[in-house]
Structures are given as structure tokens and as C-alpha cells.
Amino acid sequence: MPRVMVERFAKQYLIAEEVIGTELIVNRFGFVTGLIQETDIDATAFIRVASLFVDQKPHLGLGRPPVSTTFISLCEEQIHEPVQRNQRVEVQPPKPVIFHDGGLMKRPTPATAVIILLWLPFGIILAVIRILGAFIFPLWLMPYVITLSFCRVTVKGKPPRTKAGNAGGVLFVCNHRTMIDPLVIAYALGRRIPAVLISDLSRFYNILSPVPIVRFTRNRDVDAVIMKRELSKGDLVVCPEGSICHQPFVLRFSAMFAELTDRIVPVAVNCRFGFFQRPLRSWNGLYLFFLFMNPTIEYEITFLDQLPLEATCSSGKSPYDVANHVQRILAETLGFECTQLGRKAKYTVLT
């Protein structure tokens, strides 16, 4: 494997100090070509291992014959076969992989890679049809459009009805799985509900979104005023994680939403899709396109009971306690794990 593809994982999750692998060719424009520099991988690995252990031998070498086992001859103890089942090996519990921004959901085995390549032209056509369908057709036609485009949305629970008068709107608080979470929640409710999204999201979403988009500025005071104004008009959807998490975890919630209203309805969101997760380091407008290229998309929306007044800030609870409570009940509903890591931690790891 190329070193750049495995080094971060090996150091962070396998506690490796040094990583030796093939090197990728970088062109004069600074882009990786995907080609490797080495012509003889085994010989190069042998030389690099020998230079790493100049005055001593590695204690143990593991390898699977006949590939890449030349360097094992340098080691004091050599194991060429997998560990037997009756042989006791002490290992540390693996560190959970919370932040993973890979583009593929499936492991790219040769057979899977061929299937993905064959699917690509059909996936592009399907993505265009799905995007145009969401943009053109009214909300009451969406169930038929979704079914015909190989999508399925399962709705559980009973959301609250909209109250007449000036009582203000309900704040639907959900975990964040994909960029279309607010759209699916609006479909489940049967009405166009504004969604709060980050300000640096592509304007492409404003054009295509069938629901109004309210943009965060990342200024807490300004965002609080914006959300309060929108709630005075009606219902609103927000994802307090602030970032998408594809793994079975619920990231730490921002507590700002708890300060604005006591009409909070937690919404547990889960989804499953086939091949594509998201494009890597590209224009974020492609995220929607990649998602809709999947052969099937399955969403499960669970509306939980509205928080009682004693569980909100109206009873004297701190916003952080309310946010942690909502995070916890959403994780329990989904069977996910809560984490204290948030958006900043995610992008620190991924960049």
C-alpha cells in the first residue's frame, strides 16, 4: 500500500512509530498521479527496513507468502503464516474509528471495483433524475418519485401538529448523517420546513433545495438571532452536531438550540446506501450528486416525544445538560455511541 494512504491510520490506531510503504509520484503541479515510484517493491522495502534498523535486527517479522516477504529475512523471528487459532495473542482493544471521510462504502475488491465502474454511467443518469425530481415535483408527489427512483423512507413515531396562532414553531433536533437529512424530515412531515445549514455550503443547494435554507454564520450571537426569528415564523430543523458523521456515533451537540426554545422534538436519523459516500476533497456541491448515484438509498426517521418542560431550560437546566440529554436519547434510539468529539475535532483529524 502507498505510505500516504496508511500512515495516519497506522500511527493513530496501531500505535506505529514509523511506516514504510511505496511512494506515489507527484507531478510538477503538485498532484498525485496514482502511480508508484518503485519498480521493485520488495527490494525497496528491504533497503528501507535495513536502513531503519542499522545496528540491530527487528525482533519480529510478519508476512503472508509469497507477496512482500523479502524484508522478513532481516528479522530475528519470522512468521509467514497466519496465527493459529489456538495460539494466544494479546492485543489492545482497537481504538474506534469515528471520523472517516472515505468516498466508498464498500471495500474495493476487484469484483466490487468492476461493479462500481459498470454502474457509474447508470449512476450519473439516476442522480440527475433524482435531483431534477426533487426540484421539479411538488412535495405531495415525492412519495411516488422516491419509490420509482429506488429510494425508501421509513417513518416511525408521531410528530407534533403545527399550532395555530403566534405560539412559535417546533425545533426538530436531529443527528446528522447526510446533507439531505432536512429534506427527508420535511418529506416525513409532509410540509416545507426551513433547515439550518452551514454558511460555507455551496449555493448549489439553495438552487436545488425544495425546502428553504437558513445559513449559519458561525457567529454564536448572530446565529441565535437568526434561529429565534425563524422559530417565531414556524417550525425549523437543525443538526447541532455541526458536521456529518458516517460512523455509528453521535457527535457532541452545540448547546445553542436549547437556549432558544422549550419546544424541542428529537429526531433520530439513520440511512443506508450502496456504493458511494462522498467525494474526497472536492467541491461540496458534488456531495449531493455522489449520494444520489447510489443504486438504493434507505432512510429511517424516528420522531421522539417532545421534551417535557422539566427537561428544558425553562425548568432551570443548563443548555449543556439539555443538549447532552438530547444527544444521549438519540444515540440510544439509534443504537449508536455518544462521543464528546465535535466538528473541530473531526476536521483536525481529517486535515
Notes on the protein architecture:
There is one protein chain. This protein is an alpha/beta fold. The chain has two domains: 3-79, no CATH class; 110-350, no CATH class. 34% of the residues lie in helices and 16% in strands. It is built from eleven helices and 13 strands. The chain has helices at 3-13, 41-52, 110-136, 142-148, 181-189, 204-208, 220-233, 256-260, 286-292, 319-334, 343-350; strands at residues 24-26, 32-36, 60-62, 77-79, 151-156, 171-174, 195-198, 213-216, 236-238, 249-250, 264-273, 297-303, 337-338. Strands 5-12-11-6-9 form a five-stranded mixed β-sheet, sandwiched between helices. β7 (195-198), α6 (204-208) and β8 (213-216) form a beta-alpha-beta unit. α3 (110-136) packs across α9. The longest helix has 27 residues, at 110-136. It is globular, with a radius of gyration of 25 Å. The chain crosses the membrane at residues 111-129. GO terms for molecular function: glycerol-3-phosphate 2-O-acyltransferase activity; phosphatase activity.
Give the biggest sheet.
Answer: 5 strands, mixed
The count of DSSP E runs of length 2 or more, i.e. the number of strands, is 13
* Ends apart, CA distance between termini: 20 Å
Described by the principal axes of the CA atoms, the overall outline is globular
Q: Which spans of ≥5 residues are poorly predicted at pLDDT below 50?
A: none
Strand order of the largest sheet: 5-12-11-6-9
